[in-house]
Every structure is written in C-alpha cells, then in structure tokens.
Write a structure and sequence with these properties.
Largest sheet: none
CATH architecture of the domain at 1-69: Alpha Horseshoe
Radius of gyration: 19 Å
Number of strands: 0
Low-confidence stretches: none
Distance between the termini: 60 Å
CATH class of the domain at 1-69: Mainly Alpha
Mean pLDDT: 97
C-alpha cells in the first residue's frame, strides 16, 4: 500500500527547497519521516536542508540516519564526508569519502572530496591520485583540474602540473590563470 502521507509531505518539502525555504522544508521532511521512519531519501533531504542553513550537527545526524537506514548508500557517505570536512574534521571526512568511493567507484564528487581531505591533511601525492580519478570522471570540472594541479605542484611534480594546466586552459582559461598564479605563490 502506498504511504500517501509520506510522499505528500516529501514533495511539499522538496517544493519549498526549490525556493530556498529550508525551514518550511524541514517541517515537511520531518513529517515524511514520521509517516515512514525508514524513508532514507527524506532523511538525506533533511540533512541537505539543515546543511543549507549551516546547521551542520543536525545535518550530520540526518545523513547518518539515512546511512543507518540504507547502509550501502555511497551518496549518504559522501554527504557525511562533506559535512565533516566543512566542520574541519578531516580525518573523519577522509574515512567517509574512502567508504563512499569503495561503494561507488564512479562517484566523481566522492573522489574530489577524498582528494581535498587528503590535501588538507598534507598528503598531497595521495590527494593527486584521488583528484586524478575525479578529473577523469568529470573532465570538464575546472575545480578538480585546478586542485589536481595544486596537488601536483605541492607534491613536486612539475611535469604533471604542466599537463593539468594545459588541459584546464582548453576549457577554462581564467581558472588556468589562477592555477599559474597560485602555483607561483605557494
């Protein structure tokens, strides 16, 4: 039997999220979860709504609940890593991103998060490895290529930096110029 209460509240909340009315969305998502406590999608959306308001502890709680409901949810693990990274809890974020990429090896944003966490922990050669995968999965992502170039620079790989710069310059010359300037000053 279809749980109309769950879906009515969920889609009402999604409507409010479209217009950045996150407080109103939270109410609807909480009602959707009350109607079906095993509704992992609503738990994830609730985490996103809290995160959009900068309420990171609540967002983290919701993403962890989504993961508890659906333990193999690579996107929920990515979301946990994203929030932990924003909270400057880099080791924990790194662990979440590692689990995410192991579950979904083609999830480019999880590879990107993994690379960024490794870079923040000073593990630049490892960061470059993860960012290489992110860049291969999303070849037109200027942020992945910029950060890959910086990881190459920081880990002392000038030839690879030049190759990343040449690729980036083909589709985002402004970001390429930024990479040139930033790699000179760091």
């Amino acid at each position: 039997m279809i749980n109309f209460e769950q879906w009515r509240n969920f889609y009402r909340a999604r409507f409010f999220m479209l217009f950045n009315r996150h407080e109103r969305a939270i109410d609807g998502l909480e009602r959707a979860l009350a109607a079906n406590p095993r509704f992992s999608r609503a738990a994830s959306c609730l985490g996103f709504a809290y995160g959009s308001l900068g309420r990171d502890e609540e967002a983290l709680r919701c993403f962890r609940e989504a993961l508890r409901i659906k333990p193999d949810d690579a996107v929920a693990l990515f979301d946990i890593g994203f929030i932990l990274e924003r909270m400057k809890r880099y080791e924990e974020a790194l662990e979440a991103f590692e689990k995410s990429v192991s579950l979904a090896p083609r999830l480019d944003r999880a590879w990107y998060g993994l690379g960024m966490s490794r870079a923040r922990l000073g593990r630049h050669a490892e960061a470059a490895n993860a960012l290489e995968t992110a860049a291969k999965l999303q070849p037109m992502n200027p942020h992945a290529w910029y950060n890959l170039g910086m990881a190459y620079h920081t880990s002392g790989q000038p030839e690879k930096l030049a190759a990343a710069l040449a690729h980036l310059d083909r589709f985002d010359p402004k970001m390429a110029l930024r990479l040139i300037n930033d790699s000179k000053t760091h």
